[in-house]
Amino acid sequence: MKYALTLILTAALLCASARAADWKGQADAALAMTPAARAVLENKPEKSAQEIYLLTIFYYREFQKAKLKKLESDYAKVLSGTPEMQLLQGIMLMWDHRQEESRRVLAGLVAAHPDFHPAAVTLAHLDYLRKDFERSYAGARRLIGRKKELSRFHFTVSLLVASGAKGVLAHRNLVIAIPAYFEVNGYLKEAQKQLPDSAEVLYAIGTYRLLTPSIAGGDLDMAVSLLERSRRLAPQNPGVYVRLAQAYRARGLAPVSRQYLEQARAIDPQDELLLDDLSGEKVFLDAP
After folding, report:
1. In angstroms, how far is CA 166 from the centroid of its own chain?
2. Most exposed of 43, 80, 144, 231 (fewest Cβ within 10 Å)?
3. Is the pLDDT of residue 17 over 60?
4. Separate counts of helices (H) and strands (E) for the chain
5. What whole-number distance in Å separates Cα of residue 69 and Cα of residue 89?
6. Close Cβ partners of 259 (under 8 Å, ≥ 6 residues apart)
7. What domains sit in the chain, N to C, each tagged with a CATH number?
8. pLDDT tens sequence across 125-172
9. Rounded CA gap, 150 and 158, in Å?
């Protein structure tokens, strides 16, 4: 009887461990969660590591930095050292523009938990913001190759990071511009298939339409339409205001452009894309 009880307890622990490590399934469940279910989760007084992970995905997608910060503040001690908390901390450091600290946290998390792909996806995003486009592209490409192991959301983000990094690299090297065009288009089409009406996909395709010459698919009117749709879905994303500012500047509407830049500055005055635009460096590119 004692032996049977031990087996039952061991099996239960293994099942719980398997559920805890089902990061792909949890992320896919987050995408399917209704607003009512999300509200229940947000209002729950005590949250598990898995529930913190779900909320981290929501707030990461929406650029809800204040809510991420509160999650970290409330649960940092309780969930110290867990992959879910380390991911949250890595994202918060990234949004706070403490890039090297963020990279240490995320890279350490990837090394300790190589199957925790959300950390690797966030790391590729961070490398893009750090303007290390080669590393960002390589990391995103590796993740795309592991599609079956990624949630739909994290696979989509990998596609978008790869497309963005490749676009910048192609701009620097005209020899690869034509094949890069087909590659980037492939990523964006697949991302659109995965999450067609999401803020992140609309932002990425709108940015592509903005930054690409008309001969390669650029369309200023379409860019504005897509970026405005993204802005309505994720109004806390400073980058979408910067891209809209660039679009209106390309239209010759300087006052409107300045208004969008001010909105971006109000959300995050240290945003990497905003500073890149204001400096005139335009590493992240501008409308042709």
Report:
1. 16
2. 43
3. no
4. 16, 0
5. 9
6. 245
7. 197-288 (1.25.40.10)
8. 999 999 999 999 999 999 999 999 999 999 999 999 999 999 999 987
9. 9
